[in-house]
Amino acid sequence: MAVKRAGFFTDTSVCIGCKACEVACKEWNGLQGNSPNLLLDSFDNTGQLDAENWRHVKFYERMPDQANLVEQPASTGGGQAFLMMSDVCKHCQHASCMEVCPTNAIVRTEFDTVYIQQDVCNGCRNCISACPYNVIGFNQATGTVHKCTLCYDRLQNDLTPACAKACPTESIKFGDVDTLHQLADARLAALQKQGYSKAQLYGRDDKVYGGLNAFFLLMDEPEVYNLPNRANAVLPSRNNLPGYLGGLATAVVAVIAGLIAFRRRGESEETKA
Amino acid sequence: MTMLAEHFVKPPEWTWYILTYFFLAGLSGGSYALGALLRLWRRPGYQAAARLAFLAAFPLILACPLLLTLDLGQPLRFWHMLFDSANLPALNFKYWSPMSLGVWALSIYAAFAFVSFVEALSSRVRRLLAGGLGAVVAVLGGALGLFVAAYTGVLLSVSNQPVWSDGWPLGGLFLASGLSGAAALLVLAAGYRPQLAEGVRALSEADRYFVAIEAVLVVMFLVTVALAGSLGKLFSGIIPLLWLFVVLGLAVPVVAHTRTRPILPLITSLLVLVGVLALRAAVIFGAQS
Q: Of A8, A166, B15, B113, whose Cβ has the fewest other Cβ atoms within 10 Å?
């Protein structure tokens, strides 16, 4: 089943936070992982996506008030009390990382995914300051940056990416983006029918970075999951024009100021003489 | 639960090499631009100062490629910035990526800085460049110098890093501060040599204008960052101390001028230079704190 436009549909409503995706990803991609990080505030000990973590199960625990739990058992919170989301590189159609990369190490592959060529990257880290999803990490050992490849090597061999293969609840679905869109639309309709009014798709349409090949079904607003909302899904290049125009205006004013200063000094000396 | 709907970006860990680079690039670009203006003014009393500016601009820019290379994770691949390593001998040039544009501007600027450096050193080359050719070199090199001083700010803005990407005036701000620092550096380097006195007076006057422009841009920058809600980062930890030095560097040239007994110009210049460095440190480290 060779895919034309490879992507993930991550359905957070069925994620159970088992982290099988994190483990499978590390196994397949030979990632050593960071030393254990006991964050002590949730079941999350991974912390963030980086050079060693290309899948990261985020936990957003919003438990209802614990008081009177016996007398008044807590509701399920409308499916929003305990949010889990297996985060990953979004493989944006308009990718911020690719936009700023000065070496063209970051390319779009024949599977329509965003890929960092390890033999081209020189470790300038410009992409890290550009990615609005906190995805890319720098590896001291290789001197280059790393992120999810959407298992490029597995795609080349018609295999499902490791995380999707391992996910026991099929929260992570892999396939052709168009097919995944249909699956996602049906799942969203079903959830809304069941009364989950805040359930929504993120990155399904082109409003967020031109559409995300790895898109999500969320149970609440994107902000709750630390994802930029539509208004904030902007590219680094938006600042090119105002930045350079600001520089040009400053240059013009400064050159005029310099000329005035040089003339005034010249004149005052002549008057004295 | 309050959540800011902004970007969630890791710091790229651009630290001391990049800070030093931004500082030197501002000083070199600024020096060259001032040297070009003084040279084109054709006032005999300014020519020694113009030569001093060109003598400073080239050595200052020489250290820059080294700093940038050392900052890379793979320093031996520095040339990947210029050449498409997967498709030789094709060049890499992305005008929409300030890092790509900047590397090219820096390389071409360095060539101009070298020519003017040799011109300042050798009277034979000076005679060769006495006519229109020399003027063309000064104009082009001056424009490139202004660009090199300014683009470092644009490079930070063209990202999704809170603070940097919120503050589009950064390009202009770094340019104004680079010019101010360059004027101060030249005054410092000139010392009390009589043949440079006229140029020093002109540069001191110009520096007061540059700090005024810079002060306006500092306020604009802080306002844009405040509007985006990231101002806290610019005042966390020891960063306020850096802002103190920025303010000192902005105020001292003006105060020194209005006092009847002027503060030593050398101390004024030193404080301006510390302010130029502190501004870049506050912006670089503040955003990544």
A: B15
- Supply the DSSP symbol for B83: B
* A250, A263, A268, A271, best to mutate vs chain B, most B CBs in 10 Å: A250
Q: Which residue has the higher pLDDT, B62 or B86?
A: B62
Does pLDDT of B159 surpass 60?
A: yes
Are the Cβ atoms of B160 and A130 closer than 8 angstroms?
Answer: yes
Domain A6-234, architecture per CATH: 2-Layer Sandwich (3.30)
Contacts of A136 (CB under 8 A, 6+ apart): A49, A50, A51, A89, A97, A116, A127, A128, A145, A146, A147, B10
* A 42-71 residues with CB < 8 A to B: 48, 50, 62
Tell me which DSSP letter residue B91 carries.
Answer: B
For A122, which of B33, B78, B158 is closest by C-beta distance? B78
Number of H helices, E strands in chain B: 9, 0
What confidence category does residue A80 fall into, taking pLDDT thresholds of 50, 70 and 90? Answer: low
Largest pairwise CA distance in chain B = 72
Topology of domain B16-288, per CATH? Formate dehydrogenase/DMSO reductase fold (1.20.1630)
Q: How far apart are CA B235 and CA B287, in angstroms?
A: 10
Tell me, yes or no, if A237 comes closer than 8 A to chain B by beta carbon. yes
The pLDDT assigned to A258 comes to: 94
Would you give the end-to-end CA distance of chain B in angstroms? 23
pLDDT score of A74 more than 70: no
Instruction: Tell me the ipTM for this assembly.
Output: 0.92
Residue ranges per structural domain of chain B: 16-288
Query: A242 and B80 in contact by Cβ < 8 A?
Result: no
Q: What is the pTM of this model?
A: 0.92
Decide if A137 touches B, using CB distance below 8 A: yes
Cis, peptide link before residue B240, omega less than 30° from 0:
no
